Each structure stands twice: as structure tokens, then as C-alpha cells.
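Two folds, back to back.
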Amino acid sequence: MFPAMAAPPPQFTDAEIDALVETFYARVRRHHRLGPIFETAVGPDGWPAHMATLKDFWSSVLNTTGRYKGQPVTVHQHVEGLTEGLFMPWLNLFHQTCVELFDAPRAAIVGQKAERIARSLKLGVFFKPDAVA
């Protein structure tokens, strides 16, 4: 008898990823602390390209499509005004969006991935062990 294999993680459709990215970043843009940071970083004319990049990113994260080819840590290292304290409101809005768009198990999958991404970005952007105090 063969051992039971774990079920593959659920796939997310492109339409679901589009809804996640569009709904979440509409909220980010309206947020009193996050909005100004993103507006400065993306610029008034940069949102269509940024949204396409984000959809590729989440497609790669959720479905391992390989569509995203960027370097998120490098990009975020150059975002003016980004602080560690902004990750919590970002995550809160993200979790809220996931709960509204997906059933509980799928919202948890996406939320866990966002938590890991946030930890990775915080380490990559803010952890400076060689910095002089």
C-alpha cells in the first residue's frame, strides 16, 4: 500500500488574483499612512504597470507560475518613507481582503504567504547587522 499523499495546494485563478490585487491595493491607496508612501513610490502614472507586476508576483507566489522576475527586497530598499511599522497595517489590510474574497482555508494560505513575504522584506530592508549604532 502506498502512503497517503498530501493534496496539492489549491490553485488560484487569474481572476481571483486580479481581484485580490485590485481590491487590496485600492485599500492601500486610501490608507492614511500607506497611501502616501505608495503614491510617492509608484507615481501617478505608474499604477497600471505596478498592478501588472503585482499580479505576476502573486501568480508566482500562489501558483508557482514564474511570471514574476523582479527583486522585491532591492525595490523596497529604495522606497522613501518605508518603515518597519508600516508592515502591520499592510498585513492587516491584506488579511481583511483575503477573508472577504476567499473561504477560510484559502484565505489562510494566502495570508500565511503574505506573512512570510513581510518577514523576508523586513529582514532584507531593515536588518543591518554591520551598521554602526
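---
second:
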Amino acid sequence: MTKIITALMRQKIRFPASIWLVSFLLTLGLTSGWQRTEATTPQRLVQAGTAQNALTNLLTQVDAAASRGDVKGVLQFYSPSFTHGDGLNIQTLEKSLISLWQRYPKLQYSTKLLSSKSEGNGIIAETETKITGLPSGNGNNLALNATIKSRQRIENGKIVRQDILAERTLLTSGSKPPQIDFKLPQQLLVGQKYNFDAIVQEPLGDDFLLGTALEEPIQPEKFLNPTPVDLELLTSGGLFKTGQAPSTPGSQWLSAVILRGNGMTMVTQRLQIVKK
């Protein structure tokens, strides 16, 4: 038994690219319909007080289109000068979406409009999208659930800017992935100390737990280059870590991976670092 545990502890796993790419799924939520409706909806509907219903109806239509995974069809609604808060541009966004949809060919979207307003020659819309992906037949047995809040700026029917406000992604595999209570603040001040817990809810019985915690800055190259991590034997019912926010503002991913005999769970949350 000791040899088996030692062998497992030496294994490296890679966070699937999708755990980093899922941030960009939300950009699809405000694309396909804008070109058709910009002449009659944005500014005038906002002024008339009916933008909420119009945008909600539009998002419902676009959710269905995005679920088809048509990369070229989606990207035609992006400005060539598109920018993203995480440092992506239109070229790296395309590569990211292709990689993601190869791994998850059957994603389902449900987008809710949180707010919208006119600003200069554009519209600022904040949305929340829930995304689900069941295990596919291409050898990928991971199930995905994500919730993402985002802010988009749309000008002349094109998305010109996006910023992710909050996100959490859950990936599970196996017949009985661990149920995890994941405790982490969404925002910290620079230099602030914090606790990071991922607690397994079910009794362990005779199972061993392997796991690790990972903290990384959000960088464009991470979206296409999954990070290898070492799993370690956990002597308690989960992961219990302390950390300290960096001294400069920005965003980080904090992740927990926990593996037991019949399943694995991976949780990633965005952590915003802000000044006082």
C-alpha cells in the first residue's frame, strides 16, 4: 500500500486548458444579435426604458447560437482592436475558443442581463452567465459548471472591450467526485492575508485523499498552456492554506484539486487584488 501511495504522489496532472479558457465563454453572450439590431435598439431603447427586455430577449437568442460552437461566426462580431482585461486580443481569443470547443463540443449557456447603460458612443452591459458541459464522447470525461460575471462595451455592433468581474469554475470526473465546500474571498486588498479552504463534505471511510492548491497570476499564455501540478497525500479532510495578496493590484486564479478513489474535483476562482 505504501508503494501505491508513493507512486500516486509522484504523478503530475495538468489543469485542463478549459479551466483557464472558460473565462472567455461569456464574451459570446453579447455578440451575434447586435449587428442585426443596432439600428433600432441600443440608444433609443435605453432612452425609452425598454432596453432591459430587449437585451434579455437578445441574450436568449445568442445563448442558443453560442452553444453551437461556431468560432468564425462569433468572432465576426468582435472589433479587430478588441481588448480584454486579461491581456488577450482577437487572435489569442480565437485560438483559445478553438481549443476550448475541441475539448467541450456541447456547452450550454444561460445568460442573465444584470445592468446596461449608454456611455458615449457605446453601451456598457453587465451580465452573468452559467455554463454547463457534460462529459463528451471524445475521451474527455470531465463535467464542467461555471458562473461568470462580466462587463462588456459594445460599439457599432462590435464588442470592443471585456472585463471579467467574478468567476468560479468547477470540473469533476469519475463516478463519485468529492463534494467540496470551497471558501475563498472574491476580493482582497494589496498585501492582505487570507485563508483558502477546500473541505470535503462526505465521510472518507477507507479512501485516501490526494490534492493540491495552486495560486497563479492571470496571464494570456496560461490559457493555452496548462500548468503541471504535483498531488500530495492529504492527512485531513481537505486543503487548508493561508496566503497573502501581492503588493500590486491585479487578478489571480486560486485553484484546488482533490482526488479520491472514484472521482476528482477541481475548483478555480478568480481573486481580485485592489488598492485601498
